[in-house]
Write a structure and sequence with these properties.
Number of helices: 8
Helix content: 25-40%
Strand order of the largest sheet: 5-2-1-6-7-11-10-12
Shape: globular
CATH superfamily: Class I glutamine amidotransferase (GATase) domain
Radius of gyration: 16 Å
CATH topology: Rossmann fold
CATH architecture: 3-Layer(aba) Sandwich
Largest sheet: 8 strands, mixed
Order of helices and strands: EHEEEEEHHEHEHEEEHHHE
Strand content: 15-25%
Protein backbone atom coordinates (compact mmCIF):
# COMPACT_ATOMS: atom_id res chain seq x y z
CA UNK A 1 0.00 0.00 0.00
CA UNK A 2 1.30 3.43 -0.96
CA UNK A 3 0.74 6.29 1.45
CA UNK A 4 0.55 9.92 0.38
CA UNK A 5 0.06 13.10 2.34
CA UNK A 6 -3.49 14.43 1.70
CA UNK A 7 -2.04 17.48 -0.03
CA UNK A 8 -0.19 15.39 -2.59
CA UNK A 9 -1.41 13.58 -5.66
CA UNK A 10 -4.28 11.26 -4.73
CA UNK A 11 -3.59 7.54 -4.83
CA UNK A 12 -7.15 6.62 -5.82
CA UNK A 13 -9.72 8.08 -8.15
CA UNK A 14 -13.07 8.75 -6.54
CA UNK A 15 -14.72 5.73 -8.13
CA UNK A 16 -11.96 3.34 -7.04
CA UNK A 17 -12.68 1.02 -4.11
CA UNK A 18 -11.16 1.28 -0.65
CA UNK A 19 -11.99 -0.83 2.37
CA UNK A 20 -11.51 0.21 6.00
CA UNK A 21 -11.45 -2.42 8.73
CA UNK A 22 -12.81 -1.04 11.99
CA UNK A 23 -11.39 -3.10 14.84
CA UNK A 24 -13.62 -3.32 17.92
CA UNK A 25 -13.66 -5.24 21.21
CA UNK A 26 -15.63 -5.34 24.44
CA UNK A 27 -15.64 -1.87 25.97
CA UNK A 28 -15.07 0.24 22.86
CA UNK A 29 -16.54 3.73 23.28
CA UNK A 30 -19.48 4.02 20.84
CA UNK A 31 -18.37 7.49 19.73
CA UNK A 32 -15.26 5.87 18.22
CA UNK A 33 -17.43 3.64 16.08
CA UNK A 34 -19.53 6.59 14.93
CA UNK A 35 -16.42 8.66 14.24
CA UNK A 36 -14.94 5.94 12.03
CA UNK A 37 -17.63 3.75 10.48
CA UNK A 38 -20.13 6.61 10.60
CA UNK A 39 -17.84 8.99 8.74
CA UNK A 40 -17.02 6.34 6.14
CA UNK A 41 -20.74 5.65 5.65
CA UNK A 42 -21.38 9.34 4.97
CA UNK A 43 -18.33 9.49 2.69
CA UNK A 44 -20.07 7.08 0.31
CA UNK A 45 -22.15 10.01 -0.89
CA UNK A 46 -19.09 11.36 -2.71
CA UNK A 47 -16.80 8.29 -2.73
CA UNK A 48 -19.23 5.55 -3.84
CA UNK A 49 -16.76 2.65 -3.65
CA UNK A 50 -15.49 3.31 -0.12
CA UNK A 51 -16.65 0.80 2.49
CA UNK A 52 -15.92 -0.51 5.95
CA UNK A 53 -16.18 -3.82 7.76
CA UNK A 54 -16.45 -4.23 11.52
CA UNK A 55 -13.81 -6.68 12.79
CA UNK A 56 -13.56 -8.31 16.23
CA UNK A 57 -11.78 -11.35 17.63
CA UNK A 58 -14.77 -13.37 16.46
CA UNK A 59 -17.70 -12.45 14.25
CA UNK A 60 -20.91 -11.70 16.12
CA UNK A 61 -22.20 -9.41 18.84
CA UNK A 62 -19.71 -7.20 20.69
CA UNK A 63 -20.72 -5.31 23.84
CA UNK A 64 -19.41 -1.76 23.67
CA UNK A 65 -19.29 0.74 26.53
CA UNK A 66 -22.51 2.35 27.74
CA UNK A 67 -24.71 -0.67 27.05
CA UNK A 68 -24.41 -0.42 23.25
CA UNK A 69 -23.92 -3.53 21.13
CA UNK A 70 -22.61 -3.95 17.59
CA UNK A 71 -22.42 -6.95 15.31
CA UNK A 72 -18.95 -7.61 13.94
CA UNK A 73 -19.15 -8.96 10.41
CA UNK A 74 -15.78 -10.71 10.58
CA UNK A 75 -13.33 -12.22 13.02
CA UNK A 76 -9.57 -11.89 13.09
CA UNK A 77 -9.17 -15.11 11.11
CA UNK A 78 -11.91 -14.42 8.57
CA UNK A 79 -11.70 -10.69 7.86
CA UNK A 80 -11.18 -9.52 4.28
CA UNK A 81 -8.07 -7.65 3.22
CA UNK A 82 -8.45 -3.94 3.99
CA UNK A 83 -6.56 -0.88 2.82
CA UNK A 84 -6.54 0.48 6.37
CA UNK A 85 -7.36 -1.08 9.74
CA UNK A 86 -8.46 1.38 12.44
CA UNK A 87 -8.29 0.26 16.07
CA UNK A 88 -10.94 1.98 18.16
CA UNK A 89 -10.53 3.19 21.73
CA UNK A 90 -12.57 2.98 24.89
CA UNK A 91 -12.26 1.69 28.46
CA UNK A 92 -11.75 -1.86 27.20
CA UNK A 93 -8.27 -0.94 25.95
CA UNK A 94 -6.73 -1.96 29.28
CA UNK A 95 -7.71 -5.58 28.67
CA UNK A 96 -6.72 -5.46 25.00
CA UNK A 97 -3.11 -4.46 25.65
CA UNK A 98 -2.76 -7.89 27.28
CA UNK A 99 -4.90 -9.81 24.80
CA UNK A 100 -2.78 -12.25 22.79
CA UNK A 101 -5.33 -12.63 19.97
CA UNK A 102 -5.58 -8.88 19.43
CA UNK A 103 -1.83 -8.28 19.54
CA UNK A 104 -1.09 -11.20 17.22
CA UNK A 105 -3.68 -9.97 14.73
CA UNK A 106 -2.22 -6.46 14.65
CA UNK A 107 1.36 -7.68 14.33
CA UNK A 108 0.58 -9.72 11.23
CA UNK A 109 -0.96 -6.81 9.33
CA UNK A 110 1.15 -5.03 6.67
CA UNK A 111 3.29 -2.19 7.97
CA UNK A 112 1.59 1.12 7.26
CA UNK A 113 -1.93 -0.30 7.08
CA UNK A 114 -2.76 0.04 10.80
CA UNK A 115 -4.12 3.20 12.43
CA UNK A 116 -5.82 4.06 15.70
CA UNK A 117 -8.24 6.53 17.18
CA UNK A 118 -8.27 7.64 20.81
CA UNK A 119 -6.95 4.98 23.22
CA UNK A 120 -6.65 2.48 20.40
CA UNK A 121 -3.15 3.93 20.19
CA UNK A 122 -2.23 2.20 23.46
CA UNK A 123 -3.13 -1.13 21.86
CA UNK A 124 -0.88 -0.31 18.91
CA UNK A 125 1.88 0.47 21.40
CA UNK A 126 1.39 -2.88 23.13
CA UNK A 127 1.63 -4.63 19.76
CA UNK A 128 5.02 -2.96 19.18
CA UNK A 129 3.79 -0.90 16.23
CA UNK A 130 4.74 2.49 17.69
CA UNK A 131 8.34 1.79 18.69
CA UNK A 132 10.60 4.69 17.70
CA UNK A 133 7.63 6.64 16.36
CA UNK A 134 5.71 9.70 17.46
CA UNK A 135 2.11 8.95 18.39
CA UNK A 136 -0.90 10.56 19.97
CA UNK A 137 -3.99 9.52 21.88
CA UNK A 138 -6.40 11.11 24.37
CA UNK A 139 -4.68 13.98 26.20
CA UNK A 140 -6.67 14.17 29.44
CA UNK A 141 -7.56 11.64 32.15
CA UNK A 142 -11.23 10.77 32.55
CA UNK A 143 -13.08 9.63 35.67
CA UNK A 144 -10.89 7.55 37.94
CA UNK A 145 -7.87 7.45 35.59
CA UNK A 146 -4.71 8.38 37.51
CA UNK A 147 -2.98 9.72 34.41
CA UNK A 148 -3.79 10.63 30.83
CA UNK A 149 -3.52 7.93 28.15
CA UNK A 150 -0.98 10.13 26.34
CA UNK A 151 1.33 9.85 29.35
CA UNK A 152 0.77 6.10 29.58
CA UNK A 153 2.03 5.42 26.06
CA UNK A 154 5.65 5.28 27.25
CA UNK A 155 4.69 2.94 30.07
CA UNK A 156 3.58 0.43 27.46
CA UNK A 157 6.28 1.08 24.87
CA UNK A 158 9.34 2.92 26.18
CA UNK A 159 10.55 4.04 22.75
CA UNK A 160 7.33 5.71 21.60
CA UNK A 161 7.43 9.51 21.48
CA UNK A 162 4.08 10.91 22.69
CA UNK A 163 2.88 14.13 21.15
CA UNK A 164 -0.30 16.12 21.73
CA UNK A 165 -1.87 16.46 18.29
CA UNK A 166 -5.17 16.08 16.50
CA UNK A 167 -3.52 13.58 14.14
CA UNK A 168 -0.04 12.08 14.08
CA UNK A 169 1.35 10.29 11.02
CA UNK A 170 4.82 8.89 11.57
CA UNK A 171 5.99 7.00 8.49
CA UNK A 172 2.56 5.67 7.65
CA UNK A 173 1.40 4.75 11.16
CA UNK A 174 -1.47 7.12 11.90
CA UNK A 175 -2.79 7.79 15.39
CA UNK A 176 -5.40 10.36 16.34
CA UNK A 177 -6.40 12.20 19.47
CA UNK A 178 -9.22 11.31 21.80
CA UNK A 179 -12.99 11.12 21.56
CA UNK A 180 -14.31 13.43 18.80
CA UNK A 181 -10.81 13.75 17.31
CA UNK A 182 -11.41 10.26 15.94
CA UNK A 183 -13.35 12.09 13.23
CA UNK A 184 -10.21 14.06 12.38
CA UNK A 185 -8.21 10.85 12.15
CA UNK A 186 -10.74 9.21 9.84
CA UNK A 187 -10.86 12.27 7.60
CA UNK A 188 -7.07 12.34 7.44
CA UNK A 189 -7.00 8.67 6.40
CA UNK A 190 -9.60 9.31 3.71
CA UNK A 191 -7.32 12.07 2.46
CA UNK A 192 -4.36 9.67 2.41
CA UNK A 193 -6.26 7.43 0.01
CA UNK A 194 -8.28 9.89 -2.06
CA UNK A 195 -6.54 13.25 -1.70
CA UNK A 196 -7.24 16.49 0.12
CA UNK A 197 -10.09 17.65 -2.12
CA UNK A 198 -12.07 14.50 -1.32
CA UNK A 199 -11.11 14.76 2.34
CA UNK A 200 -12.38 18.33 2.56
CA UNK A 201 -15.59 17.48 0.69
CA UNK A 202 -16.37 14.71 3.17
CA UNK A 203 -15.65 17.13 6.03
CA UNK A 204 -18.17 19.58 4.57
CA UNK A 205 -20.67 16.80 3.98
CA UNK A 206 -20.67 15.85 7.66
CA UNK A 207 -20.68 19.56 8.67
CA UNK A 208 -17.28 19.20 10.29
CA UNK A 209 -15.20 21.38 7.97
CA UNK A 210 -14.76 24.28 10.41
CA UNK A 211 -14.07 21.93 13.33
CA UNK A 212 -11.51 20.01 11.27
CA UNK A 213 -9.63 23.20 10.41
CA UNK A 214 -9.93 24.57 13.96
CA UNK A 215 -8.54 21.35 15.45
CA UNK A 216 -5.68 21.31 12.98
CA UNK A 217 -4.86 24.93 13.81
CA UNK A 218 -5.05 24.40 17.58
CA UNK A 219 -3.42 20.97 17.94
CA UNK A 220 -1.73 20.35 14.63
CA UNK A 221 -1.20 17.39 12.33
CA UNK A 222 2.22 15.96 13.20
CA UNK A 223 3.57 14.33 10.05
CA UNK A 224 6.92 12.61 9.58
CA UNK A 225 7.72 10.86 6.30
Amino acid sequence: MVWRHPGSLAVKQRNEPARFGIVVYAGVEPIDLGATAGVISMARRVLPAIECVIIAAEAGTVELAGGVSVIAAAGFDTCPVCDIYIVCGGPGWEQQVLDRAMLTFLRRLPVGSVASVCTGGLILAAAGLLGGRRATTRRHPVGTEASAPLARLVQICSSVRPIAAAVCDDRGVVTSGGVSLAIDGTLYLIGCLYGREAQDEVARLIEYDRSFEANRAALGHAIAR
